[in-house]
């Protein structure tokens, strides 16, 4: 399945990748210049300019989003917004699920990205919940 992707810079600008295959998306994550972009982000913060963590993201055109962003050198966070099929009482669509989690390695992010591309949202959510930090669990409760 093709999804669209983007690259987020530390100054809130983004570069659209357009429709991407899983292979292209995985390559975008693994080849992103994380160290360089994180330095630029840090410089903006030190100059007290508006800044956001650099990252790479993908969405399905629906409510599903997969966004990996750097919080420090070799430290990443994953933001997931996942739609859930079905209806409550047969009438109301199930609300989407939002999760934030720590990513230990980019290879871990690629494994989760595979589930995202395969539209295995329930499996992806279950796998993501296994890796939530205490802080992320508290944030996900709210």
Kindly list the characteristics that best describe this protein.
alpha+beta, 6-stranded antiparallel sheet, two-stranded antiparallel sheet, 37% helix, disordered C terminus
Chart the SSEs and their pairings.
Elements lengths: L2 E6 L5 E7 L1 H10 L2 H13 L8 E5 L5 E8 L2 E8 L4 E2 L3 E2 L3 E7 L2 H12 L3 H10 L3 H8 L1
Helix pairs in contact: 1-3
Question: How would you describe what is shown here?
Answer:
- With 142 residues, the protein is an alpha+beta fold.
- The protein has one domain (3-141).
- It contains five helices and eight strands, in the order ββααββββββααα.
- It has helices at 22-31, 34-46, 106-117, 121-130, 134-141; strands at residues 3-8, 14-20, 55-59, 65-72, 75-82, 87-88, 92-93, 97-103.
- The model is unreliable at 134-142 (pLDDT under 50).
Q: How many structurally independent domains? A: 1
Rounded radius of gyration (Å): 16 Å
Count of separate DSSP helical elements: 5
Mean pLDDT: 84
What is the number of strand segments? Answer: 8
Largest sheet: 6 strands, antiparallel
Beta-strand percent range? 25-35%
pLDDT < 50 stretches: 134-142
């Amino acid at each position: 399945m093709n999804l669209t992707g983007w690259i987020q810079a530390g100054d809130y600008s983004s570069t659209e990748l357009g429709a991407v295959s899983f292979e292209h998306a995985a390559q975008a994550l693994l080849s992103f210049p994380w160290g360089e972009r994180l330095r630029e982000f840090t410089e903006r913060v030190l100059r007290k300019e508006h800044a956001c963590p650099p990252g790479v993201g993908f969405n399905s055109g629906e409510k599903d989003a997969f966004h990996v962003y750097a919080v420090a050198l070799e430290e990443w966070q994953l933001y997931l917004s996942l739609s859930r099929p079905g209806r409550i009482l047969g009438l109301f669509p199930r609300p989407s699920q939002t999760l934030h989690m720590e990513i230990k390695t980019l290879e871990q992010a690629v494994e989760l990205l595979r589930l995202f591309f395969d539209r295995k949202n329930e499996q992806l959510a279950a796998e993501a919940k296994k890796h939530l930090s205490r802080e992320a669990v508290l944030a996900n409760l709210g």
